[in-house]
Structure formats: C-alpha cells, structure tokens
Design goal:
- By secondary structure, the protein is mainly alpha-helical.
- It has a domain of 64 residues.
- 48% of the residues lie in helices and 7% in strands.
- The protein contains three helices and two strands.
- It has a two-stranded antiparallel ribbon.
- The chain is extended.
Length: 120
C-alpha cells in the first residue's frame, strides 16, 4: 500500500496515531473493568442471568481492548514480546564442537530384493 494518496492535486500522507488510539483503548478497558467490579459490588451477579451476561460482556470488552492496546503498543515500539528466534545462539558454535571429529559418511545402503513367491 502506498504511503501517500493523491487526489485533486493534493498529497496526503498517512499519519499513525498510536498515542490517541492507545488512550481510547485504555479508556474503554478501564470502563469495562469498572463494569466488572460494579457487577460484583452491586450484587447483580447473584440475581440471575442478567448479572452473568453483564459480567461476560464486560470481560469480553476488556479482553478486546486489552488485546488492541497490546498490539498498538507493539506496533509503536512501546512493548516488545519475547521471540522464539535464537539468532545469537545459532551464530556462536559450542566450544566442544570444534574439537569433535567430523562425522563419518554413511555406508551405502544395500539393495533390497523383493520377496520371492513360489509358483504352485
């Protein structure tokens, strides 16, 4: 995708608004967590299905906005997730690897003849 849009002889560049999106996501995350706390403190959780559904909706919204906040932070460089890549370990050989003799080449495999069947 190009980084500019040209329309009517004007050029518009894309701007990322990580900070604004992060603030909005954090606001709705906090609002959802307040809904979870209010469901327990008001006693609505014990009143039946209404409290349970309100709790589930608030937890779902909190999970969505927390995930969105994590990805915004990752894209902006605020958060780094651990990676499974071991580039540093693969580049440096083990100290005993240089002293070990090279492996012997495998012996050629013997051809296997098909089983013979006796004609009757």
């Amino acid at each position: 995708m190009p980084t500019t849009i040209e329309a009517h002889n004007e050029t518009m560049t894309f701007k990322t608004n990580e900070f604004e999106l992060g603030v909005i996501s954090a606001f709705f995350l906090v609002l959802s967590l307040i809904g979870v706390v209010w469901t327990f403190t008001s006693g609505l959780i014990g009143s039946g299905i209404d409290g349970i559904l309100l709790l589930l909706v608030a937890l779902l919204m909190a999970a969505v906005f927390a995930l969105q906040l994590l990805y915004i932070g990752r894209d902006a460089g605020w958060i780094t997730f651990p990676s499974h890549k071991t580039a540093g370990k693969a580049a440096a050989p083990a100290p005993n690897a240089a002293a070990a003799p090279p492996p012997k080449p495998a012996a050629p495999a013997k051809p296997v003849s098909p089983p013979t069947t006796e004609a009757k």
